[in-house]
Amino acid sequence: MSPASTARAETALPTPVLRVDAEGIATLTLARPASRNSLSDATMAALSGHLAAIAGDSAVRAVVLCAEGPVFSAGHDLKEIQAHRGDADRGQAYYADVLGRCAALMTAIVRLPQPVIAAVEGLATAAGCQLVASCDLAVAGQAARFCTPGVNIGLFCHTPMVALTRAVSSKHAMEMLLLGDWVEADDAFRMGLVNRVVPEGEAIAAALTLARRIAARSQVPVKLGKAAFYRQAEMTLDDAYAFASDVMTTNMLARDADEGISAVLSKRHPVWEDR
């Protein structure tokens, strides 16, 4: 099938990402289980579009990312990748473009004001594993497994490496990247790739429980804190403390900080206004 035919077929399919909002939580569901929820051009575009809309939606206080079927995400769509081998440049322009769009998607998750929680059931491989690693929190069902298998097909998972090395220790990341072996849910928890392991089939419910707890907080410290967390992580120790002190000073001047401290001192529940 030609690239143009592939694009037409992809467009004709049902929407690849579903969004449902409830209780201040936006649940985004990868909805193409027949294609193993691969990060196809259409799926990445849809997911990026939802994230852009959520970023400016003050009614959304947390996001849960999940998937239909037995595979959370198999990573890039290899059929789309191979379809461009016949291009005049052997696919170079397309590969650079698709990897750039994937990087922008992962970065959008990190930079989204609201926390994003991955709820993983089944398999998360290559860029699918990268997607999990890019989320702020992750809950895995007991049967979930994770893998960066590029070396098994002649590719090092260079771009998944970026998110993976920011989520787990360097030794664990290199083991996954160099061996391409499956990592079971309990080992993913031990490595720090996921926060919780729950019985199979309960990952979405557990992620929603975390999301509700986050949604119940004032959004001032949540949004300031998420942004600051990622910025300070790339700084020297002295710069990180200086930056964190500035952000915390800003936070202390917020109305909700005054309300929260006053509530503690007067032994009552705070009333948040998100300002």
From TrEMBL:
Annotated keywords: Fatty acid metabolism, Lipid metabolism, Transit peptide
Leader sequence residues: none
Biological-process GO terms, alphabetical: fatty acid metabolic process
Entries under Pfam families matching the protein: ECH_1 (PF00378)
One Gene Ontology molecular-function label: hydro-lyase activity
Keyword Transit peptide on entry: yes
Record bears the keyword Nuclease: no
Transmembrane stretches, start-end: none
InterPro entries in the record: ClpP/crotonase-like_dom_sf (IPR029045), Enoyl-CoA_hydra/iso (IPR001753), Enoyl-CoA_hydra_C (IPR014748), Mitochondrial_ECH-domain (IPR052377)
Family classification: Belongs to the enoyl-CoA hydratase/isomerase family.
General function of this protein: May play a role in fatty acid biosynthesis and insulin sensitivity.
Family matches, as NCBIfam families: PRK08139.1
The protein's name in its UniProt record: Enoyl-CoA hydratase domain-containing protein 3, mitochondrial
